[in-house]
Structure prediction request, 794 residues.
Amino acid sequence: MFKNYIRIAWRNLVKRKVFTAINILGLAIGFGSSVLIYLFLSYHLSFDNFHANSDRIYRMVTEEHRDFVGYDPSVPPAFAKTFREDYDYAEKVAKIVFQDGFVLDSEKNGEVDKFKQSVAFVEEDFFKIFNYPLLDGSNNVSLSAPNTAIITENIAQKMYGKTAVVGETFILENDKAIQITGVLKNLPKTTFLNTEVFISFQNLKDFFEFAATENWNGITTNLECFSLLKPNQNIDHIETALLELPKKHRPKTKNKHIYKLQPLSIMHFDPLYGGLDPVLLWVFGIIGLFLVVIACINFINISTAQAFYRSKEIGVRKVLGSFKHHLFWQFLSETFVISLFAILIGLGLAILFLPSFNDLFQIELSIAHLLNIRFLGFLILVLSLVSFLSGSYPGILMSRIVPVLALKGKLSHNDTGGNTTRKILVVAQFAISITLIAATLIISRQIDYAINTDLGFDKESIVMVDIPEEIEPVQLQGLKERFNQIPGVQSTTACLSSPGGADSNWGTNLKYHNRPEREEFNIGIKAGDVDFINTFEIPLVAGRNFFKNDSLSEVLVNEKLAQKLGLASSEELLGKKIDANGGGVKATIVGVVKDFHSSDFTEDIIPIFIGAKNNWYSELAFKINMHDTKSTLNQIEKVWTDAFSNYIYEYHFLDERVAQQYEAEQRYLSLSKVFSALAILIGCLGLYGLILFFVGQRTKEIGIRKVLGSNVGNILALFTADFFKLILIAGVFATPIAWYLMEQWLQGYTYRTEIHWWVFAFAILSIMVITLLTISYQTLKVAVASPVKSLRTE
Prediction:
């Protein structure tokens, strides 16, 4: 029986080639998109799930309570030792400290090569908590001795051209000889680690003293602490017990800490601590569902539209003895055949566009990720659901056709599905497309607002170059003078980092003037020399710039500090003393600068002080003339290389660095554009199929209208008017939905664009124009035809 259903289904589909092709192409695009989204979701859901005992691995994090609640994916450096020795909850506790931009020297083929590489300083138990196996398959990682390291096979190949490198030595930061004691297999892409060089924790004190000490007075996000808990631990009980630690070790500070345990399974999905917002995965999944739903709507609309012409076939089948369930399964078989072809073509489209998808999201998915039982189950589920949902409604409608009316030709369109159902489904299609277009426009406007709005400092024509931390003040001053002699360099400043950027904020406590207690809020430190505000063009609003000095005795602050302190004006700050960084900074406020954005637009402007302290500098910033950029950059590189021959020269334009803060949003924007285009394309295929049906149905009517004096414009309006009404109805439904969704998304931004009415009007108008273009060809084709030919059409 089933074989007979399939054979008849194939004949019917071949008979109606155009409609079959439209249905298959629409479903294929929907299927292909859903496959890519499935891969994307599977990729993110598989992060760090390969470790043994992963359900017992936790990261220790901090909730900071001051004038607002902050979240740090870290704890004070002393926490690990205390948790390990004073509590009995964990089998293993280990710290890891990430550091960027270290220079590694290795010898390959008799030549010394230099590499700039991120590294991690790890305690030995780290690799007993996590399962990152060595190349030999064992987990015998040894980092107990100082000046030892393990690297991945990828780094081994890069440094030495081979993987058998145990016992080899490389030079770290032109100073420390580090011996390789193990080679790890290449790390999976689905892990939180973003470095491939791991050095003994005992070497950390030479590069980051604060993180290496047993200190309770601060937090650096470079340091992360992990624990492998003993079985059957109560997390709430542990967190309650940890409440005593701040009282014991931080009794006087107003920055109250609450230490929490974050499961490894949610690290990747916890936006409070820098993870991916899980809402994004839901959005992707829903968009993928929408695309398949739109394709199913096309199928249902076209199938029910054709039901009128297949009514005699149904009547004959019923007269010859077919029951309702026979007819139902017959039409379901046709849907299955179409869906099967569509899913195969969709799979091909997904594979074809997979490289572009990988480039967009900076991930590495391959066809190999499709070769598993789980994906096969996904395909079977999608195929079954689409076949049933798309085919069941037309099948039910056709099986209910009364054979007598069908054979006498007395059926109306309401008897075969009616126009109401089709209109509802078309409205749903239009509503989804309008929502996606409006969302794309609003996301685009927010990104444009964030990148192009005045940040309070100059980010154009600024070049940032790293400098070694151990540079002497005299050498630095002489170097600046050499750079300033380059014709294209307008000014140069030494600084810790630029005024704004994800890596530029360093917060500390503050005691203001003669107030008896420290403030509840933190203040951000911007280390920069006397040329800092001139190079970045940060305006002074009161007082003066600090004088050139070797000690940090004078500082500049921003207007926000006066606001946080409750002062009437910024001038009241001038001449006042501040005590910051736990007493490490004691200086006089000599000037107030205009507020500037030290972070992205998701965060509010914070109080800032700018001061000169030589051992805090890690970058040089150049304001350059862009008329001869290449020559200027080459001269900067020559001077820099002459001064630091043992280091690697790299430069970045500041405006590009600022734009990188919105890299994730840029990707989502690109994806929303693609999905909007696909939704519109699938919808257009459905509209084209419907207009083919309607034109064929009303050919004689068009001929009569032309004979009675109608012109081409009247005929075109006849077909477009109904569709435009449906678009307007869809706009009424889509506008509040799109507004609510985008309003929720924009809540994540402290500084944001406004949602204007014209965004929704533009989305609706766009769908109208696209609809007009879609249906105009077939409509005009009939409208310009000879009415005699139209009237002869059967």
In short: Residues 644 and 653 are 21 Å apart (CA to CA). The chain is about 50% helix and 15% strand. The chain has four domains: 1-47+275-416, 54-267, 440-454+662-794, 469-646. The radius of gyration is 34 Å.
